[in-house]
Amino acid sequence: MRYLILGNGPAGLAAAKSIRASDAGAEILIAGEEPSGPYLRPFLVHLLGGEREAEGLGDPQAAGLAESGISMRLGMRAVRLDIPAKAVVFADGSVESYDSLLIATGGRPAIPHKLRPFPERVLPIDSLANALRIRERVAIPGTMAVLGPGFLAAVTALALRRAGKEVVWLRPGEPRFGHPEGGKVDAEVLSAAAAAGITVFDGGGVAEVGDTGEGLTVTPSRGGWPVTVSTVVIATERHPNTAFLRGSGIESGTGVLVDDELRTNVPEIFAAGDCAELYDRAMQESRLNFGWRSAMAQGRLAGENMTGAGKAYLRTRDEYFWRLFGPPLRDRFKG
Ligand SMILES: Cc1cc2nc3c(=O)[nH]c(=O)nc-3n(C[C@H](O)[C@H](O)[C@H](O)COP(=O)(O)OP(=O)(O)OC[C@H]3O[C@@H](n4cnc5c(N)ncnc54)[C@H](O)[C@@H]3O)c2cc1C
Question: Is the peptide bond before 38 cis (omega within 30 degrees of 0)?
Answer without folding.
Answer: no
